[in-house]
Amino acid sequence: MEQLHPNKVRQFFFLAIIILLFWVIWQQMYFMFSAFLGSIALYVLMRKMVFKLIIEKKWKRWAVALLMIVASLVIIILPFAWIIKILITKIEPLIADPTPINLMISRIDVYLQGHFHIQTLSVQNRDTLISSATALAPKLIGSSLVMITNLGIMYFILYFMIVKCNDMELWLRRNLPFKNQNSEKVISEMREMVKANAIGIPVLALIQGVVAMIGYFMFGSTEPVLWGIITGICSVVPLVGTMLAWVPLSLYLFATGHQGPGLGLLLWGLIVIGSSDNVFRFILQKRLANVHPLITIFGVIIGVNLFGFMGLIYGPLLLSMFFLFVKIYIDEFGKDKNGVPQ
């Protein structure tokens, strides 16, 4: 039998050590993964301005890094913190007394049974739904400390990414295991997808939340600001989206005898809120990246399960990179030098 060359044995040995160490590090630092993904997303969004300030304006790298961190705090983090504060303020009373939720669900259920003979929820399922909703709220409130910790880690990583931006990008280009042309394709695809999702998803959520909020004001829904925020959050849910918010509100208006406002809000949701998603998504796709809707839908499902909140950005990216890597594999290994498939 032919023996393995000692160099091969050493290679396998070192690979085993590298994989083992990576597994140990991953197990201990997995909680930081969302912060790492967040720093990448912010770097991609800021990259053009970072290089302009460093190369054209001759700014110090540390000053550019601090400016970008402060700017992102003002533009991104503070509005997000304001939304979280509103949600927590409104949710805390419902945790102490879930009677309003129970009453709303009961009235909708009675209305659907009486007019359409549709039983949406049994008593047991209704109680389960209410208990699940009230149990989720404390988790949201209790996760604030974890979010603050991740923000600190994210900005710590982002600072060094900006300060060492040239070295980092050069290392990435040198170490991607593809031809130069395909390496540029991978980097370009990652950049465009992160931009499309990091900008497109929040902008669409904001637009649909504001449009929904206008409808809630017009048709007399209680807590229109809160429900506008909830509608914006629901817009990222695949397939059903904002219907999770305005359909129950419309049914509740019907159930409480407000037929006109209920019909008005239902039509507003179907026509205005629904069409705003299609119109502004089309505009954003033209300006950012033309991402296929199926990639966005299935990417969000995959990404949220894997990465949590950051999966909204990196789920579609993961799916797009899969198809891109298949194309690159065919280009790198699927043809001979004459272009004939192997």
Low-confidence stretches: none
Please trace the helix and strand order, writing H or E for each element. HHHHHHHHHHHHH
Q: What is the global morphology?
A: elongated
How far apart are the first and last residues' alpha carbons, in Å? 31 Å
The percentage of residues in β strands lies in: under 5%
Total count of helical runs of at least 4 residues = 13
Largest sheet: none
> What's the alpha carbon Rg, rounded to whole Å?
25 Å
According to DSSP, the number of beta strands is 0
Helix vs. strand class: mainly alpha
Q: What share of residues is helical?
A: over 70%
- Quote the average pLDDT: 79
Total domain units:
2
Write the layout of secondary structure elements.
Blueprint: H1 6-29, H2 33-56, H3 61-96, H4 99-116, H5 123-142, H6 144-163, H7 165-175, H8 180-218, H9 224-234, H10 243-255, H11 259-287, H12 293-307, H13 311-333
Helix pairs in contact: 2-3, 2-6, 2-8, 3-5, 3-6, 4-10, 8-9, 8-11, 8-13, 9-10, 10-11, 12-13
Task: Please sum up the structure shown.
By secondary structure, the chain is mainly alpha-helical. Helices cover 83% and strands 0% of the residues.
Describe the structure.
- By secondary structure, the protein is mainly alpha-helical.
- The chain has 2 domains: 31-175, no CATH class; 178-334.
- 83% of the residues lie in helices and 0% in strands.
- The protein contains 13 helices and no strands.
- The chain has helices at 6-29, 33-56, 61-96, 99-116, 123-142, 144-163, 165-175, 180-218, 224-234, 243-255, 259-287, 293-307, 311-333.
- The protein is elongated and about 80 Å long.
- 23% of the residues are buried.
